[in-house]
Amino acid sequence: MQQDTSFGVLTGNNIEARSFKAGGVIFREGDVANELFVIKSGQVRIQIGNRTVTELGQESIFGEMALIDSEPRSATATAITDVELVPVSEKQFLFLVSQTPYFALKVMRVLAQRLRVTNKTFG
Amino acid sequence: MQQDTSFGVLTGNNIEARSFKAGGVIFREGDVANELFVIKSGQVRIQIGNRTVTELGQESIFGEMALIDSEPRSATATAITDVELVPVSEKQFLFLVSQTPYFALKVMRVLAQRLRVTNKTFG
């Protein structure tokens, strides 16, 4: 079943985006974390060590793990192309979860899909 | 950091539990799913193929993946000891997510922790 995991609604024109050039490191495994990102444009690679976990495009989120469990970054994120990212702070994240249950469900879907992919890769 | 992922509040005395004998199969990988479970007592093993993904005790939840993404069961759950489980239907789950943001965050923490464990095992 196709699941809606688009977070495009969070990349509206009034929100300031952060830009990274192709090849730039957005964050590194082990970094302290206090925000997640929505991809406004471009593509991002998520790696653990040398292993690429996933590659993500427009309207995807990443960096949500560290926000959920208050642990350091579990992976490294790099810009594949030039990218524009909309940061979502921990405070904004908690607000979204509490005010919009649909947002919470979409974040859960992202996590569940990543677990399924990981389990299929290594199962 | 120790994270609260206890769902004991859902196993109150007024809720009817479902019992499984040690060794009994609770659900199988590929099964159609419409509920998650909270462990009221006992221990449960989660397996994908022959690989044990995790073993869970009292107040843990499992079976949440299929509820979140409406896919079949991603793993097989077996009773290690005699167990008592409190089922949570999809409807109850959606109600809990929408009414209690703290519940949503705890479910996200469970998923994030499982992803971290899986990534560490195979990273």
TrEMBL record, chains A, B:
Domain named Cyclic nucleotide-binding: residues: 13-114
User: What domain of life does the native source organism fall in?
Assistant: Bacteria
UniProt cross-references to SUPFAM superfamilies, sorted A to Z: cAMP-binding domain-like
Recall the GO molecular function terms of this protein's record: DNA-binding transcription factor activity
Q: Which GO terms describe its cellular component?
A: cytosol
In its UniProt entry, what is this protein called?
Cyclic nucleotide-binding domain-containing protein
| Organism annotation | Bradyrhizobium erythrophlei
